[in-house]
Amino acid sequence: MDKEIKHILVAMTGASGSIYGVRLVEELLRAERRVTLLVTRAGMEVLRYETGLEWRGTTSERQALMRDYFGGSEGLVHYDVGDLFAPPASGSSAPDAMVVVPCSMGSAARMAAGISDNLAERVADVVLKERRPLLLVPRETPFNQLHLENLLRLARAGAQILPAMPAFYHRPRTMEDLIDFVVGKILDSLRIEHNLFERWGGA
Known about the structure:
globular, six-stranded parallel beta sheet, 203 residues, 40% helix, 6 strands, Rossmann fold, 7 helices, alpha/beta, single chain
């Protein structure tokens, strides 16, 4: 990963753990990165159930709600997940990196099979063919054999699998500490500096 990551596409799918995606977007915008945010239909329902966020309406209305939530940042762009004509669907406009967080096992299976039923799956295909970083953050337990085989197939195709597994060596005291550890590991993989957790051996 020699090129600096400036434009990241974040896709939130229908697994539990939507707060990871929300926190990641916050930190990426704070780091002055361009963010394209996609949320699948199931992802929207999980987001509403787990966080109370209601990003509804037309695509432009949802983008306005998202920008308002993230402090009015114009560095955030949103496309409807059904819009296969959106710029990121083409290799000529591919993001520098893509993070699927949380990544449902259904989404992982379709990506592993090269199926592009929505924009998130299409961009994953594009990012892999353009040999750019694709990070998948599954939030599922336990894994069955199909889950593991699909994740292995994606890893062999070039994706990085980063399960939402908080550590405890930094002695977390709050839920936010646990969330920030996972988000920090994502940022580490993108080589974006942060101070979300104390590293092993730190002061």
